[in-house]
Design goal:
Layout (H helix, E strand, L loop, with lengths): L5 E5 L3 H12 L4 E5 L2 H11 L3 E5 L7 H10 L6 E5 L4 H9 L4 E4 L4 H33 L3 H11 L4 H8 L3 H14 L5 H11 L5
Parallel strand pairs: 1-2, 1-3, 3-4, 4-5
């Protein structure tokens, strides 16, 4: 279980809160329970990342309204809604609002644990993808305008001589810029440079 595997339980039924908190804490999750969605939203700015497990039917702010408010605040938290028998239409609405999954009561403990583990794994992958994209953007930003031009020529398949002619510089100068581009982009080959250019959308300046 990742170190940030925090779970926020929201349910107005104390017995349900206690039962879920015990189950998940003994399964390796760090659990914080809330009696109402209002209390959760008040604490949200201090909570950090975690997965929300919320009942869909609650007084005042219910699960649907909670999803709407989380969406409005751009809180990127995976949400699993718990529904009672016959609440499938509400569950569908919740999914449309961004809920990751729904659990129809009564549900097996193992299924909830599996869904939570999948949510954290998915979040971890998304975080890595975002970090990789940010690092690639930083590498591109480190290129000078001339280095960027030479990179464009390289990924277009042009030879050093053709790039030199295109930008009215000497082939030797192109070689220097080419070495700089490969170093700054951390590319060991032209094919790797092309892959980076495709990923970043930088094929054309």
């Amino acid at each position: 279980m990742p170190n940030n595997a925090r779970v926020f339980i929201i349910d107005d039924d104390a017995a349900v809160r206690d039962s879920l908190a015990f189950l998940l804490s003994t399964s390796g999750f760090a659990v914080t329970a809330f009696e109402t969605a209002e209390h959760f939203l008040e604490a949200l700015p201090r909570l950090g990342f975690g997965c929300v497990v919320t009942d869909i039917r609650m007084p005042e702010i219910d699960g649907i309204e909670l999803l709407k408010r989380l969406k409005a605040t751009a809180a990127d938290l995976p949400v699993i809604v718990m529904t009672g028998h016959g609440d499938v239409p509400l569950a569908v609405e919740a999914m449309k609002l961004g809920a990751l999954d729904f659990m129809e009561k009564p549900f097996e403990d193992e299924r909830l644990i599996n869904v939570l583990q999948a949510a954290f794994e998915q979040s971890s992958k998304a975080t890595k993808v975002a970090a990789d994209a940010s690092e690639l953007a930083a590498r591109l930003a480190s290129l000078s305008p001339r280095e960027r031009q030479v990179m464009n020529g390289l990924v277009a398949g042009l030879s050093n001589k053709a790039i030199a002619k295109e930008y009215d510089i000497s082939p030797r100068t192109v070689e220097v810029y080419r070495a700089n581009v490969m170093m700054k982009m951390h590319a060991g080959s032209i094919s790797e440079l092309v892959r980076q250019a495709i990923r970043s959308g930088a094929l054309i300046d």
